[in-house]
Amino acid sequence: MLLLEKLNLKPQEMFNKISEIRVKSDSYLFYYGFENVSVPSNKLKKDVSKEMKFYMIPFSGITYGCRGGYGNGILKNRCAFKNLLYSQNLEAEDLVYIMKSVNLASRLTAIEYYTKNIDQFDSKEKGIIDALIYEIFKEYGNKKIKILLGDIGYHLTIEDAVNRNLEENCW
């Protein structure tokens, strides 16, 4: 940091302040390519909150599941999703946006949220979201991903992973 200032470079232009995204702090984190990965894979243009932009990128966590690791803590991506839910109400358009994210863990958590709250959506929205979920599951087919449930890792297809988390009641 001091070297950047000595060279008359402005760290604020090169780094995102943590306090703008997650916690109150004066430290800086460098998120290389933040703007590129916070846009959905099909380049939809939509004004979204800082929390949603952060949630959609790999820096929000790429491990899918509820809890895991040392101390069985809530996984990073799940925490980012809860932070997003506390900051705004998610509508169908928001879920579609998230489901086109480059971050697979974010996509799958959005599918979980939709499944848990399906009654909040009208039939047109359900049709759009169901078609998108079908495309996501079709895209990955029988490829397996690793998910964490507690301190155990499982290798499951993404459809099985979502269903397993729905059974675990991660909310």
Topology:
Layout: H1 2-6, H2 11-14, E1 16-17, E2 28-29, H3 34-37, H4 50-56, E3 64-68, E4 73-74, H5 76-87, H6 92-99, H7 104-116, H8 123-140, E5 144-150, E6 152-157, H9 158-168
Parallel strand pairs: 3-5
Antiparallel strand pairs: 1-2, 3-4, 5-6
List keywords for this structure.
alpha+beta, 48% helix, 14% strand, globular
Structural features, described:
This protein is of the alpha+beta class and 171 residues long. 48% of the residues lie in helices and 14% in strands. It has helices at residues 2-6, 11-14, 34-37, 50-56, 76-87, 92-99, 104-116, 123-140, 158-168, and strands at residues 16-17, 28-29, 64-68, 73-74, 144-150, 152-157. It has a four-stranded mixed β-sheet with strand order 4-3-5-6. Helix 4 (50-56) packs antiparallel against helix 5 (76-87). The chain is globular, with a radius of gyration of 17 Å. The model is unreliable at 17-26 (pLDDT under 50).
Write down the overall mean pLDDT.
80
Q: Which series of helices and strands comes N to C?
A: HHEEHHEEHHHHEEH
* Count of individual beta strands: 6
Helix percent band: 40-55%
Number of helices: 9
Neighbour order of strands in the largest sheet? 4-3-5-6
Decide which structural class fits the backbone. alpha+beta
Poorly predicted tracts of residues = 17-26
Q: How would you describe the oligomerization state of the chains in this entry?
A: single chain
The share of residues in extended strands comes to 5-15%
Instruction: Outline the biggest β-sheet.
Output: 4 strands, mixed
Terminal residue distance: 39 Å
